[in-house]
TrEMBL record:
Enzyme class: ligase
Gene Ontology CC: cytosol
Keyword annotations: ATP-binding, Ligase, Nucleotide-binding, Purine biosynthesis
Residues in SAICAR synthetase/ADE2 N-terminal domain copies: 6-235
UniProt name for this protein: Phosphoribosylaminoimidazole-succinocarboxamide synthase
Catalytic activity, EC: 6.3.2.6
Catalytic reactions on record: 5-amino-1-(5-phospho-D-ribosyl)imidazole-4-carboxylate + L-aspartate + ATP = (2S)-2-[5-amino-1-(5-phospho-beta-D-ribosyl)imidazole-4-carboxamido]succinate + ADP + phosphate + 2 H(+)
UniProt family annotation: Belongs to the SAICAR synthetase family.
Record GO biological process: 'de novo' IMP biosynthetic process; cobalamin biosynthetic process
Protein's UniProt keywords contain Acyltransferase: no
């Protein structure tokens, strides 16, 4: 069997050249990192769960007309996606204060924000993904004004969709991060939601108990990350609600 070409290896995923031009295979690893990779672990089953959850969110977004890079899931750990040029920004949308916003502005975690707040970080691990303003983005040419208008609208549509979906299964979408890519159709450029949407890149709290069901479980040593992600997947019906076994069935 021919060895496929690895394009890039990140902290949680590997990208391989896809079977057709303009496609990429996105492989979800079990590796988890936090605090710019100062904390690392391998968490059995995380990659499989995130592959399924990201498929679920991306597919749902396309059904409401939000363009994404997702094409189809290939197997337990891999999905086929459209190759795109990632805009070097992490787009964060917050509904409740938590994490770096709570620390930066001295707001108690869990405080409802008066409206969703969108923040941008410059994607550069060496710099620790610093917070930037639209002034920096324009001055350094990371995205045009038109791109920024489109990014804001995409981010808010993702927020509405994800908040509603989560609310329906008793989960509060506290905040999340997305990445946006450019795809070219002939002379035209379109922006699509890229990378992944998973409990690695969201804060998800149980509405009743406040229990954390996202990567903060790993960041803050709050218990089993696999159990938390399995709970999210079960509530959404992405994996069977209960199969009589304590371990979830992750086949197919
Ligand atoms: P923050 O409060 O640490 O800035 O995180 C905001 C949101 O972004 C939270 O849902 C977690 C997510 N996030 C990532 O997906 N990747 C990252 O590298 C960081 C720092 C946060």
């Amino acid at each position: 069997m021919a060895r496929r070409k690895k394009i890039y290896e990140g902290k949680a995923k590997i990208l391989y050249e896809g079977p057709e031009p303009g496609t990429i295979v996105q492989y979800f690893k079990d590796d988890a990192t936090a605090f710019n990779a100062q904390k690392k672990a391998t968490i059995e089953g995380k990659g499989v769960l995130n592959n399924r959850l990201s498929e679920y969110f991306m597919t749902g977004l396309s059904t409401i007309g939000v363009p994404t890079h997702f094409i189809r899931r290939l197997n337990m750990r891999e999905q086929l996606v459209r190759a795109c040029e990632i805009i070097p920004l992490e787009i964060i949308v917050r509904n409740f204060a938590a994490g770096s916003l709570a620390t930066r502005l001295g707001i108690e975690e869990g405080t409802a924000l008066p409206r969703p707040i969108v923040e941008y970080c410059y994607k550069d691990d060496k710099l620790g993904d610093p917070l930037v303003t639209e002034e920096h983005i324009a001055a350094f040419g990371w995205a045009s004004q038109q791109d920024m208008d489109d990014i804001l609208s995409l981010a808010l549509r993702v927020n509405d969709y994800m908040s509603g979906l989560m609310y329906g299964v008793g989960i509060r979408l506290v905040d999340f991060k997305i990445e946006i890519g450019r795809v070219y159709d002939g002379d035209f450029q379109r922006l699509v939601v890229a990378d992944e949407i998973s409990p690695d890149s969201c804060r998800l709290w149980d509405i009743e108990t406040g229990q954390k069901l996202d990567k903060d479980v790993f960041r803050r040593d709050l218990g089993s990350l696999t159990d938390a992600y399995t709970e999210v997947a079960r509530r959404l019906g992405v994996i069977p609600k209960s199969n009589g076994h304590s371990k979830p069935t992750l086949i197919n």
